[in-house]
Amino acid sequence: MHRKSIGVLLVMVLASLSVAGCLFSIPGMNNSELSIQGTVVNEENVGIANVAVYLDGDYATMTKANGSWTYEAAKKGAKVTFRKGDWSFTTNIDSVGKAGQVFLTIGIEDTAGEPSTAYMVSGKVVDDAGEGIPSVTVTFTFADDSFVTAVTNSSGDFSKSDLEGAVTIKAEKTGYNIPGFFKVNGEERNITFIGNTGTLGAYEVSGIVESTGGLAIEGVVLTFEDGNGTVQTARSGSDGSYSKSGLFGKLTITAVLDGWEFTPASRAISSEDPELNFYGTPSLERTYAASGAILISGGTDDGNPVAAVQIKLELLDFDEATRVDLHTITTPEGVWQMDGLVGRVRITPIKDGFTFTPSSQIIDKGLQFIGFVATP
Q1: CA angle at residue 136 from 131 to 140, to 5 degrees?
Q2: 59-68, 86-95, 132-141: which has the highest mean pLDDT?
Q3: Do 298 and 247 lie in a common domain?
Q4: Which of 170, 183, 185, 203 is 20 to 30 A off residue 279, Cα-Cα?
Q5: How many C-beta atoms lie closer than 10 Å to residue 358's C-beta?
């Protein structure tokens, strides 16, 4: 197939995926981690396996036998590229824009160019006694800062093929100090890393993440970064708690959740801490509006609106000592509306001579027609 047919083929692939029901969006509550997917095919619309997918130059995932791939933690705006041996790729989208985005990619194998310059590297990771260390992550970083990895087997051996150009190799495993690196630009079969546990001691930290109003914040990503830029993560649960074990050395911990600001912004740690807490405040730039109505239940006025009901709106995620609660009243039609809401809000109707069901409601996003029933 001629290269000028790529655009037509992309349209055909996109249409076929749409018919098959493969195009959908996934509305994420947390826009900092987006789920994306795609398919890589050749000019005959046949899936290409083992194509490496990179986001901003960092390895993300690999295509399956049918050419499909998914990635659950993409960052908005990240540039998406593809790599496989002597193949070149053209895609319908070049960066992440939203959750559920589908990338349709055409691969063309260069069969008429120069012979492949790909090479293989192999070696071993051992301890001070010469015994192999299993499950060590060996990272191969290319000149463009993209990378691939391998993991040592039970004997400490590793290998990686399809490398091209200058490559820097490092080995890492939690609990081990594995110093040094190797730079290669061709086949090597005797690379040896020596690691040791030294005097390093693993430690654990834990804590809670809650709003300044005292409510637990779920889904906060806690990142633990060392001086080499290696990052580990944990996530807060429904009760706001988190924990992370197997940590070593000096680390910087940061709490991240889209739409929230945390205090402190980050903390330095180097030993066990069972009360490593963070406190969040919703961003004042993320406001929303809500509205509703109140109707009478029972008696001859059943279904009629209730006017002049005071609506109290409490911004629960802010410090009670400093926050200002909002108030409005229902119109003659029993309707109320309020904008400028932030975070979780408790809505309570109040009027002498009436009881309300439910007595209050809590919301955390824009809603219309929040209903209350009034009983005289």
Answers
A1: 120
A2: 132-141
A3: no
A4: 203
A5: 12
